[in-house]
UniProtKB/TrEMBL annotation:
Family stated for the protein in its record: Belongs to the HMG-CoA lyase family.
Gene3D superfamilies per UniProt: Aldolase class I
Superkingdom field: Bacteria
UniProt keyword Metal-binding present: yes
The name this protein goes by in its record: Hydroxymethylglutaryl-CoA lyase
Keyword line: Lyase, Metal-binding
GO molecular function, one term: lyase activity
Pfam families xref list: HMGL-like
InterPro entries referenced in this protein's UniProt entry, alphabetically: Aldolase_TIM, HMGL, PYR_CT
Organism: Algoriphagus namhaensis
């Protein structure tokens, strides 16, 4: 079964002008009508670091979850954020960004990789106690621009460490949009057979014309969990390329359905959400 994770949090977080809390909630409520597996809806991080997400708790209280099959995921960057997120029973998943790049880990969470791994262990233990699931994102999972060490073998070493901590979902993340279909195939063909008890996902950034090839590469290598954002909004500012955003969910849907996958989505509600994006993101 294919799992689509819609990521309004990732789409919104880099927008400098604050999006009104009610608008955020209305947009996410529309996404909840579509039938995505999970909505990455917000983050419990420092408001100084990500000002756009300072109202995540308020947004959560405005969400209507009663008729939705979608689960909620919140990003956290430390144990304090995890404890804040765990106060809300509506949240199913906590997401933590663990980088293969030492430079990016410092920039992203102000911690070393060694410290971040300790945090992963702490959050994993908290999730087990609270009945939640930790999703660990291996950022810079397809290379980095800093000259830090990178190889498919290094990715495997990180996966092994996370497996030892009991992490059950790992999303390989292409933070700067550099992953080729060939590398996507290689990484998933290495990891998925070696760790059959782990659910692997793909959080990729891409130009729109490259999305179909990347989805096909992931599917062909056994990946069945894909993150995206409608219209491809969001992405990594460090990419320094406005054409490289999140994987456009509508393009992924088109590709997956073309491959014969029934995603069980409500297309009428999807069309309504697509109409809202221009208003929400002021494009």
């Amino acid at each position: 079964m294919i799992k689509l994770i819609e990521c309004p949090r990732d789409a919104m977080q880099g927008i400098p002008n604050f999006i009104d809390t009610a608008i955020k909630a209305a947009y996410i409520n529309q996404l909840l009508e579509i039938g995505f597996d999970t909505i990455d809806f917000g983050s419990f991080v420092s408001p100084k670091a990500i000002p756009q997400m300072r109202d995540t708790a308020e947004v959560l209280e405005l969400l209507d979850l009663h008729q939705s099959r979608s689960k909620l995921l919140a990003i956290v960057a430390n144990t304090r954020g995890a404890n804040d997120a765990l106060l809300f029973p509506q949240i199913d998943y906590l997401g933590f960004p663990l980088s293969i790049s030492e430079t990016f880990q410092q920039r992203n969470t102000n911690a070393s990789i060694a410290q971040a791994l300790e945090t992963v262990e702490e959050i994993q233990n908290l999730c087990e106690v609270k009945g939640k699931t930790l999703v660990t994102y291996l950022s810079m999972g397809f290379g980095n621009p800093y000259g830090d060490p990178y190889s498919p073998e290094l990715v495997a070493e990180f996966v092994q460490k996370l497996d030892q901590l009991g992490v059950k979902i790992i999303s390989l993340s292409d933070t700067i949009g550099s992953a080729s279909p060939e590398l996507i195939t290689q990484l998933f063909e290495i990891q998925i057979p070696a760790f059959p008890h782990i659910e692997f996902g793909a959080h990729l950034h891409s130009r729109k014309e490259d999305i179909a090839a990347k989805v096909k590469a992931g599917i062909g290598a056994g990946c069945s969990r894909f993150d995206g954002a409608l219209n491809g909004f969001g992405g990594c500012p460090m990419a320094k390329d406005e054409l490289v955003g999140n994987m456009a969910t509508e393009r992924m849907i088109e590709t997956l359905e073309g491959l014969g996958h029934d995603l069980g989505l409500n297309k009428a509600e999807l069309n309504e959400a697509m109409k809202l994006t221009s208003f929400v993101f002021n494009q």
